[in-house]
Design a protein that fits this description.
The chain has 330 residues and is α/β, with parallel strands linked by helices. The chain is built from ten helices and eleven strands. Helix 9 (234-242) links the parallel strand 5 (224-227) and strand 6 (246-250).
Length: 330
């Protein structure tokens, strides 16, 4: 075993052994080659990648190792950073393939009746300075209700109700040139680098579908897609259904979005206004069947629940929209 990558203590040795076992079990070298992460000569890519993971879990960095004189690897700093900044490596595909392998080892351990689902959400990836960071932007933080520097991080995960696995993700920059702070480089539109940057400036709804397509292409499968109100518009729900997936989401309280109910196009307020609410201790205040979409319509069920756990009882509907306590019962 080489001296490289090994921290000088027993805990470091155990960490290295655990990472090496993980690499062997899930064939990380093969997955890296499938995602264009390979070299014609020199230090193997898998050795650099293993060193990076050891540093992450040991909370160390190459910079501090070089400062303290503890860096003893067989590759140079330039080799390491060229690997990290290589625009030809498809990291989106790599994480999708890896998570599919991990999920494949988990699924046989659970009951066949267990429901699997994709989970989509975005969060703020804040950076204090973006002047030299490509596509660094001013993005709106809905928590603090103000603009901040950084990106939005769109993440797709897989869950069986007990275990959660991150599948893939994408950093989103602002589509407005006035909000972009960092430099913008141009690439050949046929390259992976150009497609990645185009995706970064796309709408969140478009990126969500691309992440789902990449996960399905990698071999993932799920019964539902769970997402919040921001993605819950009729066109998005139809697009998810086109991927042969059902959706569970909280609906938008908007008078501009209409659904077909009993042959009429009505907004959510009018639908729940003309329907009789359930009294007593029923779990649901109201549950009605509607049609979603314009040219292509799909069935959906709108439900108002009393419980905070509004994802628990939606396994039988083909498409379910949930609105927890949106309106008080009459």
């Amino acid at each position: 075993m080489p001296n490289s990558i090994l921290p000088q203590d027993n805990d470091g040795q155990e960490l290295f052994n655990a990472i090496s076992s993980f690499f062997s079990m899930f064939e990380i070298g093969k997955l890296l080659r499938m995602c264009n992460a390979q070299k014609e000569k020199g230090v193997p890519v898998i050795q650099i990648f293993k060193y990076k993971l050891c540093n992450v879990f040991a909370d160390r960095s190459m910079y501090m190792q070089q400062r303290t004189g503890s860096f003893r690897e067989s590759f140079s700093k330039n080799t390491f950073y060229r690997f990290l900044s290589n625009s030809k490596i498809n990291w989106l595909r790599f994480t999708s393939l890896l998570s599919q392998k991990v999920a494949g080892t988990i699924e046989p351990l659970t009951d066949e009746k267990r429901v699997n689902a994709f989970v989509v959400d975005d969060t703020l990836f804040e950076r204090s300075s973006c002047k030299k960071t490509e596509f660094g932007s001013r993005v709106f933080d809905h928590t603090d209700m103000r603009y901040k520097k950084g990106y939005r991080l769109m993440t797709l995960g897989w869950t069986d109700g007990n275990t959660f696995l991150p599948v893939n993700s994408s950093l989103l920059a602002s589509a407005k040139s006035s909000n972009v702070i960092g430099p913008v480089h141009t690439y050949d539109g046929r390259t992976l680098a150009a497609r990645r940057r185009k995706l970064a400036q796309s709408k969140g709804t478009v990126v969500m579908l691309e992440l789902l397509k990449e996960a399905l292409k990698a071999g993932h499968h799920a019964d539902y897609v769970l997402f919040d109100t921001w993605f819950a518009n009729p066109s998005q729900l139809v697009a998810v259904k086109d991927l042969e997936l059902d959706a569970i989401a909280m609906i938008k309280k908007s008078s501009r979005i209409r659904y077909e109910y009993e042959g009429k196009m009505l907004d959510i307020k009018k639908i729940f206004g003309i329907c009789r609410k359930r009294r007593g201790r029923s779990k649901y205040l109201l549950s009605v069947n509607v049609m979603v979409g314009k040219e292509q319509k799909i069935p959906a069920k709108k439900t108002i629940e009393r419980s905070e756990k509004y994802f628990s009882s939606c396994q039988t509907s083909s498409l379910t929209l949930l609105s927890r306590n949106l309106y008080k019962s009459s």
